[in-house]
Automatic annotation (TrEMBL):
Sequence intervals crossing the membrane: 42-62, 68-87, 99-130, 136-157, 164-183
Positions in coiled-coil regions: 188-218
Broad EC category: transferase
MF terms in GO: ATP binding; phosphorelay sensor kinase activity; protein dimerization activity
UniProt domain Signal transduction histidine kinase subgroup 3 dimerisation and phosphoacceptor: residue ranges: 212-276
InterPro entries: HATPase_C_sf, Sensor_HK_TwoCompSys, Sig_transdc_His_kin_sub3_dim/P
Catalytic activity: ATP + protein L-histidine = ADP + protein N-phospho-L-histidine
Name of the protein this chain belongs to: histidine kinase
Top-rank taxon, per record: Bacteria
């Protein structure tokens, strides 16, 4: 036999190679990632800084004589700075044009205005390189343009200013530092975007887990309750055809009891979905065993033969473990009624002291109480009346439940030379 095996819990929301993939909405998120946290006030800060810069230039020009073209270039740089702050992010091309204009005029007047005129170059270069939605080649082009503008500005510098070696060194240092700041800003924006993408993936994984949990509970309640009703109603139909009205009436009353039990089970499922099962109180050993015995008696009431041996757990079980054992037994009995009608079912709950499943990832508890093994087997037989009512989600639901329990293991499959179906689950005792 080659049974299916599921070990839990799995690691969700993470690629094994650590790679991060961006969704189709990443382009929109990139634009948001470049927005400062101050939101709509960022443009106001840029305008204020531009105005302060303009006042600084005016103060410098008032104390020294400069050529008219220097005045004009500085004015264009200030206007470009302010316009760049006012252009919305949806107009990326206009923003880029303003930034490149700042780079050009800043480079032209960097030497004539004693480096202060080159501030627009620094700001424009940081903005172009730091924008994450722009290709890297845009930053390279901006850097080359800045170098060319500085070279042209050096040629335009008056002869009496050519001995200002410190100004030249300062301008080159400003160029390099601006490029590095732009690269750093781009990396920060990329990291923020990656974190947002990971957070979105985590939220999506949580939503999918919630959906799977709801689907699992619905399946367990409906498959067990409605499947049992189908068996009872088929029996009622057969009894009525043979004229055994009293027995048919007894079956109808039994069907009502099943419906009431199904409603009660549905309420328990709703309560479980509304609460965090990890915070639920542990289930006592007696209560855990009684819940399994109740399912066995219900199967017998439907005409099924069950040979049961239920050992009492050595200690209280976590609510998730007790629920998983009960739901797995419920699904196994329901499958036996569907696919092996009339065949006897063997149910055994036993404790295996000190045993471990064959998986390297099983955690070692500080106090080893052994393991609980629930095994349900039945011979293969003819399908029952409810065989076509399932959607094939029962085994998947078992696997999901086991995957949420640390150190648990599930095996399902056909054994005994293809004559018997087995469901076996191991959980920490």
């Amino acid at each position: 036999m080659r049974p299916r095996r599921v070990c839990g819990p799995p690691v969700r929301g993470q690629r094994q190679d650590g790679a991060v993939t961006f969704s189709s909405r990443a382009a929109d998120a990139i634009a948001r990632a470049n927005m400062p946290r101050s939101g709509g006030r960022s443009w106001l800060f840029s305008v204020i800084w531009g105005a302060v810069y303009a006042l600084g230039l005016a103060s410098m020009f008032a104390s020294t004589h400069r050529a008219p073209w220097v005045w004009l270039a500085c004015a264009v740089g200030v206007i470009g700075w302010i316009l760049r702050a006012l252009i919305p992010d949806t107009m990326s091309r206009r923003q880029l044009a303003a930034e490149l204009g700042m780079i050009v005029v800043g480079g032209l007047v960097a030497f004539e205005a004693n480096v202060l005129g080159g501030v627009p170059l620094a700001v424009g270069l940081v903005l172009v390189i730091g924008r994450l939605e722009r290709p890297v080649r845009a930053g390279v082009v901006a850097f080359v343009l800045a170098v060319a503008a500085l070279g042209a500005g050096l040629l335009l510098t008056s002869s009496e200013s050519r001995d200002l070696g410190g100004v030249i060194v300062g301008s080159l240092a400003m160029l390099i530092i601006s490029a590095l700041v732009g690269v750093s800003r781009r990396q920060v924006n990329a990291a923020e975007l990656r974190l947002r993408e990971l957070a979105e993936q985590r939220r999506r994984a949580e939503r999918l887990d919630d959906h799977a949990r709801v689907a699992r509970e619905l399946h367990d309640v409906l498959a067990h309750g409605l499947g049992a009703l189908v068996v009872q109603l088929d029996a009622v139909d057969a009894l009525l055809e043979s004229g055994r009205v009293d027995e048919a009436a007894a079956r109808v009353r039994s069907s009502r009891t099943l419906a009431v039990d199904g409603l009660r089970d549905a309420r328990r499922a709703v309560d479980a979905l509304r609460s965090d099962e990890t915070d639920a109180a542990p289930v006592s050993p007696e209560a855990a065993t009684a819940a399994l015995a109740e399912l066995i008696e219900a199967h017998r009431a439907l005409g099924g033969a069950v040979e049961a041996r239920l050992a009492t757990p050595p200690r209280a079980l976590p609510a998730s473990t007790a629920t998983a054992l009960r739901r797995i037994l419920q699904e196994a009995l329901s499958n036996a009624r569907k696919h092996a009608a009339g065949q006897p079912v063997a149910v055994e709950l036993r404790r295996v002291p000190g045993a471990r499943p064959s998986m390297a990832a099983a955690p070692v508890a500080p106090a080893d109480h052994g393991r609980l093994v629930l095994e349900v087997t039945n011979p293969l037989g003819a399908a029952g009346a409810a065989a076509g009512t399932g959607g094939g989600h029962g085994l998947a639901g078992m696997e999901e439940r086991v995957s949420e329990i640390a150190g648990a293991e599930l095996r399902t499959g056909v054994e005994g030379a293809g004559t018997r179906f087995m469901v076996r689950v191991e959980v920490p005792a």
